From TrEMBL, chain A:
One of its GO terms (cellular component) is plasma membrane. This is ABC transporter ATP-binding protein. Residues 3-239, 255-499 form the ABC transporter domain. Pfam families: ABC_tran (PF00005). Keywords: ATP-binding, Cell membrane, Membrane, Nucleotide-binding, Repeat, Translocase, Transport.
From TrEMBL, chain B:
The chain crosses the membrane at residues 36-56, 113-131, 166-187, 196-214, 248-266, 295-316, 322-341, 348-369, 375-399. It comes from the Bacteria. GO terms for cellular component: plasma membrane. It is a multi-pass membrane protein. This is ABC transporter permease. It comes from Nesterenkonia sedimenti. Its main location: membrane. GO terms for molecular function: transmembrane transporter activity. Keywords: Cell membrane, Membrane, Transmembrane, Transmembrane helix. InterPro entries: ABC_transp_permease.
Length: 526, 438
């Protein structure tokens, strides 16, 4: 089926999220929609899927204009969508998940389970999906959950599949499987609209690339374009994808975690005897797929979560028994994983957020009363230094973009003398410009001699920043390897394969993305 | 699932209550953002609804309706006169009575308004502190009773010199309320107990406690079996500010001072910064090193102390004798006062004056025009209902939504939130009326 958008415009109040978007996806084409966070990709997808109705322009399917009043219409017309966050019910089986909402029935109110199972089995067989029909969703790895979502869409006879950031939660190997599935679907004539901000994938998979920026189409590209070209198109100026940094000059060991174990409130082991040590002036990146204990590690270091056993030592001082405040005052700079829930207080002003963890320390207070003039002056100075784009420091922080909010958080944590910098997902949801800035700031902090522990699920970020990489899987550290370790090796380690074995396996089998990289490397000098 | 996953944490027991608390936070934050325009429009709508009720219950107006089609002008003229009389009586009873016999009686209403307002303002401030810290303190009633009990007992059982006695009695009231609020605060901080439930239960306990105490001879010290205590000694009474028959007492000075102190606490002190931080986003507060448990307990201790102060001021300045009904419906009216004042100190002060004025004005309105004093209750309730549901007011007056970011994106959620706020308000109101049915 052919999907065409003609001049689709969507406004929210005075804000134009999509501005006269033209786009056409041919049958059997993998079309990538590339754009930064906030460029309007999701709005466009939701418009196609019938969640929004366009203010202007129209959507055509096989050259027939269509008007969807809701996702139901879109599904009937043959559009399937796989959201970035899966819409699955954890306790349902695969079969139940697929038929949910479209249950085949025999007689009044009787679900025809046999028919449902058969349908799932047919689709799985057709595309070679390997799923257990009776497995519970919650027991499946993320990659398999995603396949269930795809089967769900296909079972409703989707001719056009929209994938919203499908690789955000996958390991490189899982991504590889997804790419294989996408190619099969393409062979079968399904059109795929694939939304992403990851340049490598686009080049490896897409037949055609449309780049949008600030709600408008700014250009089309082919997979032959280089990553730098795509990035410049996406951002609107020249960008460097890697941050320049000198080799680390690590000094003495100053931070040690030994046999740290953290339990969840229900008693499940979230962090299992993790040990690591860091030297002053180095960046240790913790890589891992979301939910493998990284959050618990950072929160236990800050003291938000209690450690069941093990020790954490900073500059020889055991942090055990210290409150969060005492640890912050002992010199821990902390950038939490979820900025909006843990990092900033939306209703507070920029100034108040700037002093959020220093409000009762000199010079901002005398212990009882706060000194607003000092707070404001410092907030003004530091936000300028960190290039925060804003009105005044008295505005609520919620008026700032995500990137600028994160800069305020960095300004807060880095403008005092810290002896350990811990950041979780420091660039999640940020635009390319802000990402560059955050990375530069972290490297500067390292060069001042601060040990920096950076948790990230983005391998690009890990490879870009790390002097050493610790890979976590199911609450344990699989291995700690050098910063220049091969992507495919890291990918296998993310799935729990020990470092040595991962190296052997990676040498034997290269992933599709790895191949694409190599081709690009070969082309580059020419 | 063997793989550790953060999503699983929501499945733990008590998750639903946690989520409800999260939504409560949201609703409370929304309330704080309502603009002054909404407040004024709410008062206006309340007066309009009150007017309809006044007309509907007035026999003269009903009579003119009987021959409405013969002479409609009669209906309109009578209606106008009835409303003019009723609302002017309300105003004269609350602020300045230009029809009164003597100049002294003319200015008496405004002083009565202040007398009524003193406990409303003080308790309203206590509730407002909790609101801004993300907590719903329904326990004003119990804290006021405890404050009155402590203050009163010190007032009539001890013999002390003039200044010292009243100071001690007032501080005793503060302590009594702080203890009662503190029970809820410490329970919430230590065990995560929901403060709404705990404070409601503590209200009942306080009522039963005072009923029991008033039957104890060592406590009432009257020599009679009546459930009423001895009057507080003159040395413990809050002194009058005006000569003659005026009841205005030094409690209003305490209310003004408390208003300023609460402003300083919330806006200028590090403790207030902690309070506001846990109110807006407890997770971020915890991550920033704020001891959320300690701050939670302190919020209810200080809030309870202010409510206790309200009880003490009411007893030492107006009532003098402790009875089972000493708190009236003050604790619940204080919630509405805090809501109307948008949980800000000055707003609460003004809202307390407004409600105090409605009370004193309502009495004159009933005496002179026959419009029921219960109209006042309707006015109060409608005001709060509308304040709690800003979109309703915006719809009535065709105002645009103030929140530009409010998109179609999450219409269901938005509706959910609003209906919750409305529900919360009507629950408050139910409490109020219940409390008023002494």
């Amino acid at each position: 089926m052919k999907l065409e958008l003609q001049g689709v415009t969507k406004r929210f109040g005075t804000f134009t999220a999509n501005d006269r978007i033209d786009l056409s996806v041919e049958p059997g084409e993998i079309h990538a929609l590339l754009g930064e966070n906030g460029a309007g990709k999701s709005t466009l997808m939701n418009t196609i899927y019938g969640l929004y109705s366009p203010d202007e322009g129209q959507i055509l399917l096989d050259d027939q204009p269509v008007d969807f009043t809701g996702p139901g219409d879109a599904v009937r017309a043959g559009i399937g969508m796989v959201h970035q966050h899966f819409m699955l019910i954890p306790v349902f089986s695969v079969t139940e998940s697929v038929m949910l909402g479209y249950e085949p029935t025999k007689g009044p109110g009787m679900i025809d389970f046999a028919e449902a199972r058969q349908r799932v089995r047919d689709i799985s067989a057709q595309f070679g999906f390997d799923v257990d029909l009776d497995a519970k969703i919650e027991d499946l790895p993320v990659g398999a959950q995603q396949r269930v979502e795809i089967i769900k869409a296909l079972s409703r006879n989707a001719k056009i599949l929209i994938l919203d950031e499908p690789t955000a939660v996958l390991t490189p190997q899982e991504t590889d499987e997804l790419i294989a599935i996408m190619r099969q679907l393409k062979e079968a004539g399904t059109s795929i609209l694939f939304i992403t901000h990851k340049l490598r994938e686009v080049r490896a998979i897409a037949d055609k690339i449309t780049v949008i920026r600030r709600g408008a189409v700014v250009g089309e590209a082919t997979p032959e374009s280089t990553e730098t070209e795509l990035a410049s198109l996406m951002v609107g100026r020249e960008v460097s994808l890697t941050t320049e940094k000198e080799p680390a000059t690590p000094e003495d060991t100053s931070f040690e975690v030994e046999d740290l174990t953290v339990l969840s409130p229900t008693g499940k082991v979230m962090l299992d005897e993790v040990s690591l040590s860091m030297r002053r002036g180095e960046i240790l990146c913790v890589a891992g797929v979301d939910g493998n204990g990284q959050t618990e590690l950072t929160e236990a270091i800050l003291g938000v979560q209690e450690a069941a056993s093990g020790s954490i030592r900073l500059d020889g001082q055991d942090l055990k028994g210290l409150s969060v405040k005492q640890r912050i005052n002992a010199g821990i700079g902390f950038v939490p994983e979820d900025r909006s829930t843990d990092g900033v207080i939306a209703g507070f002003s920029i100034t108040e957020n700037f002093v959020l963890d220093q409000y009762d320390q000199r010079p901002y207070s005398n212990g009882v009363a706060m000194r607003h003039d000092v707070m404001r002056a410092d907030a003004q100075e530091q936000t300028a230094r960190f290039d925060v784009r804003m009105g005044t420091v008295d505005d609520p922080i919620s008026t700032l973009s995500g990137g600028n909010q994160q800069k305020v958080v960095l300004a807060r944590e880095m403008s005092r003398n810290i002896r350990l910098f811990v950041a979780s997902q420091p660039t999640r949801g940020l635009d390319v410009g802000s990402i560059e800035f955050v990375h530069r700031s972290i490297i500067e902090e390292r060069d001042k001699g601060t040990p920096c522990l950076i948790v990230s699920t983005e391998l690009d970020e890990v490879i870009n920043l790390a002097d050493r990489i610790a890979v976590m899987y199911r609450g344990r550290i699989v291995g700690i390897v050098d910063g220049d370790t091969d992507r495919d090796v890291l990918g296998l380690m993310l799935a729990g394969v020990p470092a040595d074995e991962a190296k052997i396996q990676a040498a034997q089998h290269q992933t599709a993305l790895g191949e694409a990289d190599e081709i690009a490397d070969e082309e580059a000098p020419a | 699932m063997s793989q550790p996953s953060p999503e699983n944490s929501t499945a733990e027991p008590g998750g639903a209550l946690k989520e409800a608390e999260g939504r409560l936070h949201l609703a409370l934050r929304e309330l704080g953002r309502t603009s002054w325009v909404i407040t004024l429009l709410s008062i206006f709508v309340a007066l309009v609804i009150g007017a309809v009720l006044i007309l509907a219950t007035n026999s003269d107006v009903r009579e003119t309706l009987g021959y409405f089609f013969a002479r409609p002008s009669d209906f309109f003229v009578t209606s106008f006169e009835v409303l003019r009389d009723a609302y002017s009586a309300l105003f004269r009873g609350a602020v300045y009575d230009w029809n009164a016999a003597s100049p002294e009686r003319s200015i008496r209403p405004i002083t009565e308004t202040m007398v009524n307002a003193v406990p409303l303002i003080l308790a309203g401030l206590g509730i407002a502190i909790a609101f801004r810290s993300g907590m719903l303190n329904i326990g004003g009633q119990g804290q006021i009773i405890l404050g009155a009990t402590f203050g009163g007992f010190i007032g009539y059982s001890l013999q002390l010199p003039m200044g010292a006695h009243v100071t001690l009695a007032v501080l005793g009231g503060l302590l009594g309320g702080a203890i009662w609020g503190g029970i809820a605060g410490v329970l919430k901080a230590k065990t995560g107990a929901n403060e709404v439930i705990v404070t409601i239960m503590l209200n009942n306990i306080a009522l039963l406690l005072i009923a029991w105490l008033l039957r104890q001879q060592w406590f009432v010290q009257t020599g009679s079996t009546q459930p009423i205590s001895a009057p507080v000694h003159e040395s413990a009474q809050l002194f009058g500010l005006l000569p003659g028959s005026f009841r205005l007492h030094a409690g209003i000075l305490i209310a003004v001072a408390a208003t300023f102190l609460v402003w300083w606490l919330m806006e200028r002190s590090t403790l207030g910064f902690e309070f506001r931080a846990i109110g807006e986003n407890p997770d971020a507060a915890r991550t920033a090193g704020i001891n959320v448990a300690k701050a939670t307990a302190l919020v209810l201790i200080i809030g309870g102390g202010l409510c206790g102060l309200a009880g003490a001021a009411h007893l030492l300045g107006t009532e003098y004798r402790l009875t089972g009904g000493v708190a009236g419906s003050l604790g619940f009216d204080a919630i509405t006062v805090a809501l109307l004042g948008r949980s800000k100190p000055l707003g609460t002060f003004l809202a307390g004056l407004l409600f105090g004025g409605l009370q004193s004005g309502g009495v004159l309105m009933q005496a002179q025009t026959g419009a029921s004093v219960d109209i006042v209750l309707v006015l109060q309730s409608v005001i709060v209902l509308l304040i709690a549901a800003p979109p309703l007011v915006r719809t009535i007056f065709f105002l645009p939504s103030t929140d530009g970011t409010e998109k179609k994106k999450n219409p269901r959620r938005r509706r959910l939130r609003d209906s919750e706020a409305e529900q919360a308000a009507s629950e408050d109101k139910a409490e109020t009326t219940q409390g008023a049915g002494r």
